[in-house]
Amino acid sequence: MARFPIADFNELRTPFYFYDLSLLDRTLAEIKRTARDANFKVHYAIKANANPGILRRIQAAGLGVDAVSGGEILAATEAGFDGSKIVYAGVGKSDDEIRLALDKGIGCFNVESLPELEAIAAIATELGVKAPVAFRVNPNIDAHTHEYITTGLSENKFGIDLELLPGVLDAASKLDSIRIKGLHFHIGSQITENEPFVMLCDTINRLVDEYAAKGIRFDTINVGGGLGIDYADPDRHPIPDFETYFKTFRNHLRLRPDQEVHFELGRSVVAQCGSLITRVLYVKEGLSKRFAIVDAGMTELIRPALYNAHHKIENISSPAGEMHHYDVVGPICESSDCFGKDELLPSVRRGDFLALRSAGAYGEIMASQYNCRPLPMSYFFET
Ligand code: LLP
User: Fold this and answer.
1) How far, in Å, CA of 131 to CA of 28, rounded?
2) What is the pLDDT of residues 180-236, one digit of tens each?
3) How many whole angstroms separate alpha carbon 283 and alpha carbon 268?
4) How far away, in angstroms, is 188 Cα from ligand 1 center?
5) CA-CA distance, 43 to 268, in Å (whole number)?
6) What's the first-to-final CA gap in the chain, in angstroms?
7) Model's pTM, two decimal places?
8) How much of the chain is helix, strand and coil, in % rounded to 5?
9) With a 6 A CB cut-off, is 224 part of the ligand 1 pocket?
10) H helices within 104-257, ranges in order?
11) Any atom of ligand 1 within 6 Å of the Cβ of 112
12) How many angstroms does the Cα of residue 150 sit away from the middle of ligand 1?
């Protein structure tokens, strides 16, 4: 079990996010060590967590950013990221967002359709600049992950189908305000096997060869994100296996020496450094069940309600008590507002603090104000 400064928690209004910055720093150091190749560029997928305290650390470690909205571009630049280190994806970029991206000197647009390419070209012409673009290709690879977070299958709204790519490339080569940089892929999230990444490399190699034969070269290959984490046992794997992940691309991608590989990692960078801390409001005895009703709900952490995800729950106030089963539920008026059914926990009492672990990614950033609840606060600690 991770150690938490419980005595300090008594002063704080729950629920709140609690971030271990030392673990974040160790994770970033491991990314630097394992993605050591000069042509590997790691972009942090800011959608996972845009808390300024987290962003400053990631910026200081030298990563770039992967953004999917104007708001994310602003959050990144406010945290000190240079526009040229930001790549910008998304199927629905508005004109204002495209203008903002060009104003900030965006490193690359990851373009998802022909009409989007035309809109970017028109706005770039109007501003008198050249827009760097990569084309997001839908590689039709099954990432073996939850259907809501798989993105690389062909019946998906993301990316350009492989068969349609030649037409889009041809159109782009005729647009003066467009500079073609490369190809972009993303097959899904929370991928815990290596095989989908190997398949992605094989697909990329085939495509790059096919286009090289036609005289078209790509300077950048963006492989997206998706590396999964250990939700079941965060203390056994506090830092994901970046060594194997980057090695897969080093060994399987056939690259020209001057070709860059871009990565867009979100969850694997920040998930394990964050916990949602909540207080037990009531222990309610049902006929056949015992409920631990806590003051956090799907408003603070929506992943269990939305994806059936499970975050490890710990009783950090009384870790040594007798074990009992509880349904751990929140206060929101929805029956999906449940963090765990039949959780085996050391005896829970009113006022105990529980930690929902591995909540640093897609936790705080997805919080809502449903039921007119305030957004959660966040606190940091370092060892
Ligand atoms: N690049 C693109 C184009 C993406 O769409 C995503 C995530 C990433 C990179 C980062 O993927 P990661 O390394 O974090 O797996 N809210 C969901 C996850 C949604 C992921 C959306 N796209 C969850 O809580 O599981």
Assistant:
1) 30
2) 999 999 999 999 999 999 999 999 999 999 999 999 999 999 999 999 999 999 999
3) 34
4) 7
5) 12
6) 16
7) 0.96
8) 35, 25, 40
9) yes
10) 114-127, 165-173, 195-213, 242-252
11) no
12) 9
Alpha carbon of 357 to ligand 1 centroid (Å): 19
- Amino acid code (one letter) for 108: C
Residue with tokens 């003051």: 295
Distance of CA 138 to the CA centre of its chain: 19
Tell the residue nearest (CA) to atom 7 of ligand 1.
189
Of the residues 47, 111, 364, 366, which should be mutated to test ligand 1's pocket, given the most ligand atoms within 8 Å of the CB?
47
Q: Please work out whether the CB of residue 279 comes within 6 Å of at least one atom of ligand 1.
A: no
Q: State the CB neighbour count (10 A cutoff) for residue 154.
A: 12
What values do phi and psi take at 190, rounded to 5? 50, 50
Residue 227 CA, ligand 1 centroid: distance in Å: 9
Single-letter amino acid code for the residue at 337: D
| Nearest CA among 356, 289, 331 for reference residue 18 | 356
Give the model's pLDDT for residue 1: 56
Q: How far is CA 140 from the centre of its chain?
A: 21
Q: Is 78 exposed, middle or buried (0-12, 13-18, 19+ CB in 10 A)?
A: exposed
